[in-house]
Specification:
The chain is α/β, with parallel strands linked by helices and about 120 residues long. The relative contact order is 0.22.
Amino acid sequence: MIGYVTFGTSDLARAAAFYDAIAKEMGTGRMMETDTFIAWGTPGGGAGIAATLPYDGKPATVGNGTMVALEAKDKEQVHRLYKIAITQGGTDEGPPGPRGEGGFYAAYFRDPDGNKLNAFIMG
């Protein structure tokens, strides 16, 4: 079971604004915070997301082929999360819509540091 996923960032304040807005739409908030790290989620709940300045002091980089999927409540929330991401400085990787078969509906975007996420529902 995944407890949380961490993204490296080069600008913690910018990452905080992006993920604060995403977390608010998903009904959660910050659960841990230091000068170099912020985590969003609900203690005892599902997996959380964190943003951190890299411990080694080197620049944050994006994992090629890495993506984190955020489970939305419904199609409307998929659209809202996508809009929030773009409004908060994220970039489009695929607008909301059906993907494949089986009722998978998703929107793809990157955070301001280039980390790829999606918001989705199944069936």
